[in-house]
Amino acid sequence: MHFAWLVVGLLPVASLSAVTLAEERASAALAADDVFYLDALVVTASRTQRPLADTPFRTLLLDEATIQRLHSRDVRDALRVIPGIQLREIHGKTGEAVQVQGLDGERVLVLVDGMPVSATTGSTVDLSQLSSLDIDHIEMMPGAASALYGSAAMGGVINIITRNVEGMTRLRLAMDAGSYGEARELSDEWLPQRHYLAAADLALTDTRQLGFSADQRKSSDFDLYDGSWTSNGFDGTKTTLAASWRERWGSSEPGVAGGNAALRVEQYREDLVGRRLTTSNKDGIKEEDLERWRLAANIEQSLPVGQVSASMLYEQQRDDTAQLAVDDDIVAGNLWRSADYSQYKLMGQWQAPRMLLGRTALQLVTGLEGFGEQLEQQKKEMKLSCSGVGSNSTTTELGSGYCLVDTNEVPEEQRRSVEAFVQGTLARSIDNGVADKGAVSGLQELELSPGIRWQNDSGFGPYLSPTLGSRQQWQLSMSGTDWKLQTRQSIGVGYRVPNLKNRYYIFDHSINGYKVLGNETLQPEHTRSVQVSAMITDGKRLHLELSAFHNQIKDLIEAVSTGETEQDGTVVIYRYSNIASAMTRGADVSAQWQISDALQQRLSYSLLDARDLEIGAALVNRSRHHIQGLWLWDVSADLGLTLISEYVGASYTEVADSSAGTANHMSPGYWQWDLKGDWRLSPTLRWYAGVNNLSDSVRDPRDSYDRRPSTGRFPYLGVELTF
User: Fold this and answer.
1) Rounded distance between C-alpha atoms, residue 142 and residue 97, angstroms
2) Sequence-ordered strand ranges (E) for 163-305
3) Of 388, 556, 581, 656, which sits with the fewest C-beta atoms within 10 Å of its C-beta?
4) Lowest-pLDDT range of 451-460, 559-568, 582-591, 668-677
5) pTM for this one?
6) Phi and psi at residue 265, to the nearest 5°
7) Measuring CA to CA, how many Å separate 540 from each of 471, 483, 494, 596, 708?
8) Domain boundaries 4-722, corresponding CATH code
9) CB 390: neighbour CB atoms within 10 A?
């Protein structure tokens, strides 16, 4: 194993007597009274700022302190510990996408500060591209949220809230490095896997803040087995640069003149190379260069008539891929693709003043949104001759006897939508008088939250998505201790318009034996979603939650084998298609226990039944059983240990289809354990280290149906300086 990364320990040591904001937040997050975040303010479930305990729809929260203790390099690492979330590897990449309630990433809307993130390869957001550096907290709302957030929120919403350290100047520098071991690393680099990050927050005035951040992850190729040309990782870098400006004036409370504004610009770059064995059993490589620019702005103003806000997003990305033979003497078959994608969103929202009618409080939020996306894709391919070329292609005969064919595969395609929504909440406090000790005190609060969204899409016309949520809070008195019971129920209609990538994009991974094609004839997906949950807590030591769901889906869009092949049967063709009827149902149970002031435990179990009702078979790539565990132990004031456990059950990766000649295939279940440690030497200096995947649970790369992790045991060491 490479141990060269241990030289990180030679980095300079600095000290500062002041206690940093990060420390304050970490200690607060782990305090017994705050451990469940019930008083934390969230926005996703109601589009208004409310305490987590009072949200009308079930919402889960992950805070900055926990994200740092997980040593999260990206959002993918952070989401692993949220109950009910599974991560699935994106086909043809090393990245991962989210899966909630058996609905994959195409149906779970990923937001940054309330604005959508565009997908890269395919039509799924790659969570490994989203740096965790600037995150203040993450909010996750499972279940159909189309009434609040429109298309793509059919399975839920993940909202990443960036940090806002108003009135504080600080600098954070960190580096970590690790290795998969000499038997697997395909590079003799000194530090084969490393991560650098830097963030600066500058308080220009008490109300004006500038922020800058840089995050780079460098990785070398690795292989699970000696002697294989195909690599399991990538060689290259993932870099995120961001700058932000925030300003506040007056008061931010509704009804009082004042407001705030924010502007954030971000660039993400990905430069990756992977070794692949071509379909003709030749050594080849796949290169991918991706660049994404993102500009988001928001302004809020409190007025006597309520609170108004306006937001804007523009995002543009270019994705260049190449599939090349290593042998320079055989260039026929080499191909290059370039895809240009952009999206924009404009949104205006009005939050009416809260009205009190006796014990009943009325809150109304309404908004108007505009969305657009655009896609264009080009292909260049080296052929032996210029014969048989399509009419949408141009050719260039080369002196070597080859022909370079330039094809406009996807001419500029566009989609537009105009949407309007309204969401109301009616909350009533209930006086039950004096309760007898040892008995249920009774209902304290009752809340109803109806909502509806109208969406008019340029390709599919108008659609209405209604929803209704309810929340009840009960006061319990047991053994002289006051407990609270919260129950939630919701029903909603989900709606998802096929995006441009579903309809037109060509994901060509011929070098690995398959190709995924878009389908212009796709129809929108519809779902009927029912969610129920019950949570009981004493607010200090114990927090228990049980939830159940049922999603009935019509016209589910999945990539399915067409039975067609290319290149003499070596490349299998998949195409996005509608499944007439599908269903996902299941339950999540979680327990969070503050065992002592220093030790916290979180456990969760998820049961899922996901089926294609048309053929009566299981939906692929959905595990029936999922277990998560998290232990946070403050050994001392300066030393903390974190243990993460995850079990992902077996899942079908191919189901029998007689017409396509396929059989049932399953990916085995597996356990994964991560151990992490933090050692604060001073208020400024923190060491951290860990071992991911302690048991080295990995896939068999010779089995194309094996979906276990592609990364094995990974020890690492890092250092962080905060001023």
Assistant:
1) 15
2) 170-178, 193-203, 208-219, 235-250, 258-277, 283-303
3) 388
4) 559-568
5) 0.90
6) -125, 140
7) 22, 10, 36, 11, 38
8) 2.40.170.20
9) 9
